[in-house]
Specification:
Blueprint lengths: L2 H5 L6 E5 L3 H14 L7 E5 L2 E3 L2 E2 L10 H8 L1 H10 L7 E3 L1 H27 L15 H10 L1
Parallel strand pairs: 1-2, 3-5
Antiparallel strand pairs: 3-4
Length: 149
């Protein structure tokens, strides 16, 4: 038993499990916990499978995705966006380099970049021009401006 199990019985326990082992975690595991006098999970959430290029990810196929390489290649924000936007929770999700790039370029670069460009352009034109503070262009001015705030 861990300290978390003994000392924090009042905390809500949520089990995240793969959909292929839901029966074990929803039927057998709570029965074992009950027989040991331990608290049951409050919620059991089954997540879908991740596939790569349409194939289930497995050690035997050698098609695992290294998350650190994914972060190095695309960055944290693009990776988070892809994982949250492209796969509905509980459904299976497919990763491929093409879908990752399409997701990143399609929304983050095009839509968010377009919004940022439009806002910046709007701030430089009347009537906003007189209301917006001048934007510093020198690095030292930017640091000074940030420190003054």
């Amino acid at each position: 038993l861990t300290m978390n199990t003994i000392g924090h019985r009042h905390q809500k326990k949520i089990h995240f499990v793969g959909k292929d082992i839901l029966r074990f975690h929803a039927i057998y595991w709570p029965a074992m916990l009950a027989s040991a006098g331990l608290p049951w999970p409050h919620t059991i959430v089954a997540h879908g499978w991740w596939t790569k290029d349409g194939q289930k990810i497995s050690k035997s196929l050698g098609n695992a995705i290294d998350p650190l390489l994914l972060l190095d290649a695309y960055g944290l924000d693009a990776t988070r966006y892809f994982l949250l936007a492209e796969v509905p929770f509980g459904a299976d999700g497919d990763y491929s380099r093409e879908t990752m790039l399409a997701s990143t370029n399609g929304f983050l670069a095009n839509a968010v970049g377009n919004l940022a460009q439009r806002v910046c352009t709007m701030l430089t034109k009347p009537p906003c021009q007189s209301q917006a503070p001048p934007f510093p262009t020198n690095v030292n001015d930017i640091i000074k401006h940030a420190c003054d705030q």
